[in-house]
Design goal:
The structure is a homodimer. By secondary structure, the first copy, chain A, is an alpha/beta fold. In chain A, the strands form three sheets. Chain A has an eight-stranded mixed sheet, with helices on one face. An eight-stranded parallel barrel of chain A has the order 13-14-15-16-17-18-19-20, surrounded by six helices. In chain A, a hairpin with a 4-residue loop joins strand 11 and strand 12.
C-alpha cells in the first residue's frame, strides 16, 4: 500500500469501527482495516494502533486523520480485498516468505511474519488475526513481528552536527516525563520547550486525589487535597529538571478544564439509571449523583474555549500556587545537590496582559516564600503561551509582563481558523484538502497567510515592548520543516517539538539558515 | 433592588436552580430567587424568565449573566430575606398597596399586585408564589401584573427623526420572522441585517423532516427530505421579503452543526438503558439506537468550532442549494406580484476566500436556473459573515469574491478571546470583571483592542480589494452605543441589531456622527 503516515503498528485486524472501539477500550491492540474510512469511523480510529485501507491515496480521509494523530497508516493497499460481510480480507495468490526492513520505529520482519505480496496461493486475514503495518514503507505483514526502536547512526549523527553549526534556531523538545526528557537530550534537544503538567494529574493513583480537590466543598477540603498533590508534583519536576540538568525546561501550569478529570456525564447518567432500576446500593447511587451534579455544573459546551488555563489560575489560584511551589521546591532541592536546574514557568491561554500580570505576581510571591524557606536564591523566568488571537493582537501589552513568549500554534490554529482539531480533522479537513480549499492540513503545516500573520504581529509588538523577550514555538509545527523555515524567517529564538522530531528539526533549521543566508 | 438587566418578567418564585430547571423544562414560567448566584446555578438561570437576588451589585454574577442573555434581572434586593431552608423569602414589615410604573416592556402595576416596600407587616413569598420583576427600575411585585409592550411616543419619534438626519451609519435589524420584520420596520429599521434560517428548521412540525434529512443513508433519501423542506423555506422567505418590501434582507444560510437538530446523546443513552431494563419495545430500542449511533458520529467536542456554517455547505451542498433555491423562488414570486424584494445571500463561518468562491459558484448556478425557469431576471448580492480571525487576516482575498461583509462580532469575539460565550459568561467573566481583568463583558461592548483591531484590518484589506464592498455588523454589538461609535469611526455602512434596540442604535449612530464631526 501507500506509506500514508509513518511508524509501525501491530494489532488484531478489526473490520468495524464499533468493534475497534470496544476492544480498544478494553486495552487490546487493534489495527482498523477498512476499504476506506469516513467521518463515521472516527471512534474506531482513535483507539486503534494503526489504520489500513484497501482504497484511497495520500490525501484520503484515513491518511489525513492518521497523520494528524501521529498514528501509523497504510492506504490504497489494493492487493487486499476487504470483505466486510464475512469480516475478513483476502489477498489473492499471496506468496509467503520472510523479509525485513525497518524505517523509524519500523517493523523488523522475521521468520514468524509473512510479507503480503502477490503469489500463487490466496491468503486470508480473519477478524482478530494479528497483522502489522509499516507506515514509512507501506508494507503490511501477517503475524507478530518485533518492533525496533529508532536510533541515530554515526553518519546521521555527523550530518546533524554539521547542521547544528549552520543553524541559528535553537531546538528544544516537548516532554512531560524524565524518560522523554532523556530521549530528547539523546536526540540533541537543547532544552524542554513544553513540559505539560496535566498528564501528571491523570496518573491512576492520583486521580482520586485530583477528584477530591475538584469535588471539595470547602477551601479546607481543597487545601487538603492540594497538600497531598504537592510532594507528588515536586517529585515530577525534580525528575525532569534533573534529567535536563543545565538546560532550560519550560513548565506549563495546568491547562485543561477541571471536568476532564471527572467521569463523563453520559456514563454516569447511564450507571445511575442502571443502579436504580436494578435495586443498586443506595449509598453508591447518592455518591454517583453527587459526582454527576458536579460534572454537570463543570461541563462545557466548548471546552476548548472554556474555563481552562490561566482562567483556572485566576478563579482557583490555589492550584497554580501549589504547582509553582512544587517547581520551586524541586529547584531549590536540586541546587542544594549541586545541580543547575533551569525551570521556566509558563502561563497558558492568556488573552491579554491583565491575566498574566496577576499570575506573575502570584508566582513571584511563592518564589519569595520558597527562597526565604530554603535560603536559596531563585530567579525563574515567567512567561506565557501565546495561543489566542487576542494575545497576538495585544502583544505590546503582554510583552511588558512576560520574560518569554512560546507560541502554542496548535491552539492558535484552532482559534484563528475556528477549527476544533478533534472535530475538523475527522469531519471536513480531508474533504477540504481534496477540494483544494486547503493546501495542507493547517495543524501539520503552519498557515502563513493567517496564523503566521498573527505570529509575526506578536513577535514585532512583543519585541518592541520588551527587547529581551525570548521567543519560541511549542506547537507541533515546531517539528515540521516548512513551518520551521517560517520560524527562522520570523526571527524566533527556538522551536520545540516531540523528541523523535528533534533530528528533523535540527536539519530543517540548518536548511532554512542556508537557504536564507544573507 | 438594583436594576441589573432591563425588561419585565413574571413567574413562580423558585429558590433552587434544580427546581427552576425542572419546571422550566415543563414549560412553566419561573423567576429564580437566590441570595446570589454562582456558576453552579447556570442550569436554573437558563430556563428562568428572570432572576432576583438579595445580594450583589451591578457586576455580580447574576447581573452579568442575565444581561448577557437579555433576561430581566434585579439584584441586591436587600429588603428580601431569602430563607433557602424553608424555601421562602421574607420582607420584614412590607406595606401593601397598588403602584404602577413601566419601563420598556415594563410592568404595569395594578391592584392585584403588591409592590414590596418596607412597612409594618411582614410579607412572605413562598416557593411557587407568583412574583414579577422590573429590571429597568429594580422593582419587585408580588402577584400577577400585566405586561405592557414597548411603544414609541410621538416626542421620541420626533427625536429619532432628528437623529436620522444627523447619522451617517445605516440601521438594520436582526429578524427571522415576518412579525419581527414588521416590528423592526415600525421601529425604523432600514432593512434586515441578519435573517437566521436555523430557527425555521426547528419548528416542531419540521423537526421530523430535518431529522430524516440528517439520518438519510442515501442521496435519494436526503433529496426526498430536502424536497419537502423547499416549499416551507420558500414560504418563510416570501413572508419576510414581503414584510420588508423595498428594503434589503440579508439571509444567512444554515449555520449550526447538524447534531443540534438531533436529541442529546445522554438522553438517548439513558432512554435506551431504561427501555432495555424494563422490557421495552424491541423496535423502539432499535430505532433509538440508530439515532444514537448517528448522533454520536455527528457529535462534536467543540461544536462552536466544528462542522457548521459553510463547512456544511461544502460537504453537503444539497442543503445550501435548497435554501438558495427557496430564496430565489420566493424572490421571483414577489417580483411577479409587483413587489420589490431585495434579498442578499450570506455565507457563514468562512475562513478564507476558497470556501466562498466555491459557494458563490453554487449560488450563481441556482440563480441562473431559477431565472431560466421563471423568466425573471435575478441579481442577488452574495456576501459573507466575517466571524473568524482568519477571515479578517485574509480579507484582501475574501473581498475579491464577496459583495458584502457583515461582521459577526459575537463569534469573532469568541474566537479572538478563545471564550465560548455559553461557558464564559456563566463561569468566569463575572469574576474577570470584578477583578478588573475585563473592563466590560466583551460580548456586550465590542473590544476595540483585540476584536476591533481585526475588524479594522478586514475593513481596510476588504475595501482595497473591492472598493464597492458593503460593510455592516450584525453581532449584538450593533445595538450597543459604545460599539456603534466604533462602527462609525471604522467606516462601516450600517449596524444591525435586535428590533427593540433599533431606536437606541439610531440615537447612538447620530451621537457618534455629531461627536466626531469633521
Amino acid at each position: 500500500g501507500l506509506p500514508a503516515s509513518p511508524g509501525a503498528a501491530i494489532g488484531k485486524a478489526i473490520f468495524s469501527a464499533d468493534l475497534a472501539e470496544e476492544l480498544g477500550q478494553k486495552g487490546e491492540k487493534v489495527i482498523l482495516v477498512r476499504p476506506e474510512t469516513t467521518p463515521d469511523d472516527m471512534h474506531g480510529i482513535v483507539p486503534a494502533q494503526g489504520v489500513l485501507t484497501s482504497r484511497g491515496g495520500m490525501t484520503c480521509h484515513a491518511a489525513i486523520v492518521a497523520r494528524g494523530m501521529g498514528k501509523p497508516c497504510v492506504v490504497g493497499c489494493e492487493a487486499l480485498q476487504v470483505d466486510l460481510d464475512n469480516r475478513r480480507a483476502v489477498v489473492k495468490g499471496a506468496k509467503v516468505g520472510p523479509e525485513g526492513e525497518a524505517g523509524r520505529a519500523g517493523v523488523a520482519g522475521d521468520k514468524n511474519a509473512e510479507l503480503l505480496e502477490p503469489s500463487t496461493a490466496d491468503m486470508v486475514i480473519n477478524e482478530g488475526d494479528i497483522i502489522a503495518i509499516d507506515g514509512a514503507t507501506g508494507r503490511v505483514f501477517s503475524g507478530e513481528v518485533p518492533l525496533v526502536e529508532p536510533t541515530l547512526g554515526a553518519e546521521f549523527r555527523a550530518l546533524l552536527e554539521w547542521a547544528d553549526r549552520a543553524r541559528s534556531l535553537g531546538v528544544r523538545a516537548n516532554a512531560d516525563t524524565p524518560e522523554d526528557a532523556r530521549k530528547a537530550r539523546e536526540f540533541g534537544a537543547e532544552g524542554i520547550g513544553l513540559c505539560r503538567t496535566e498528564h501528571m494529574f491523570m496518573a491512576p493513583e492520583r486521580v482520586p486525589i485530583v477528584q477530591a480537590m475538584i469535588l471539595a466543598e470547602t477551601p479546607e477540603e481543597r487545601k487538603q487535597a492540594l497538600d497531598q498533590l504537592l510532594p507528588m508534583q515536586q517529585g515530577d519536576f525534580y525528575g525532569i529538571l534533573k534529567a535536563m540538568d543545565g538546560l532550560p525546561v519550560t513548565i506549563r501550569l495546568l491547562d485543561p478544564p477541571l471536568h476532564e478529570f471527572l467521569p463523563k456525564t453520559e456514563e454516569l447518567a447511564v450507571e445511575i439509571t442502571q443502579l436504580r432500576l436494578t435495586g443498586g446500593d443506595r449509598e453508591e447511587i447518592v455518591r454517583k449523583e453527587a459526582i454527576l451534579r458536579r460534572a454537570r455544573a463543570l461541563s462545557e459546551f466548548n471546552p476548548m474555549l472554556g474555563h481552562r488555563g490561566c482562567r483556572l489560575g485566576i478563579t482557583t489560584p490555589e492550584i497554580y500556587a501549589m504547582q509553582v511551589r512544587a517547581i520551586l521546591q524541586a529547584t531549590a532541592q536540586l541546587i542544594k545537590e549541586g545541580c543547575q536546574p533551569r525551570p521556566e514557568i509558563m502561563i497558558p491561554v492568556v488573552m491579554g496582559a491583565e491575566e498574566l500580570a496577576i499570575l506573575r505576581e502570584l508566582c513571584l510571591e511563592v518564589m519569595q516564600a520558597v527562597a526565604a524557606e530554603t535560603g536559596i536564591k531563585l530567579d525563574v523566568p515567567i512567561g506565557t503561551m501565546i495561543e489566542l488571537p487576542r494575545a497576538c493582537l495585544t502583544a505590546d501589552e503582554v510583552g511588558k509582563v512576560a520574560d518569554f513568549f512560546s507560541f502554542g500554534t496548535n491552539d492558535l490554529t484552532q482559534t484563528t481558523y475556528g477549527f476544533s482539531r478533534d472535530d475538523a480533522e475527522g469531519k471536513f479537513i480531508p474533504q477540504y484538502i481534496e477540494k483544494k480549499i486547503l493546501a495542507h492540513n493547517p495543524f501539520a503545516v503552519l498557515d502563513r497567510a493567517g496564523v503566521g500573520k498573527l505570529v509575526k504581529m506578536a513577535v514585532e509588538l512583543g519585541r518592541q515592548a520588551n527587547p529581551k523577550l525570548k521567543l519560541g514555538i511549542c506547537g507541533e509545527h515546531g517539528g515540521e520543516p516548512n513551518s520551521i523555515e517560517f520560524c527562522h524567517l520570523t526571527g524566533l529564538d527556538y522551536v520545540s517539538c516531540s523528541p523523535y522530531r528533534v533530528p528533523i528539526a535540527r536539519l530543517a533549521a540548518a536548511q532554512a539558515a542556508i537557504k536564507h543566508r544573507k
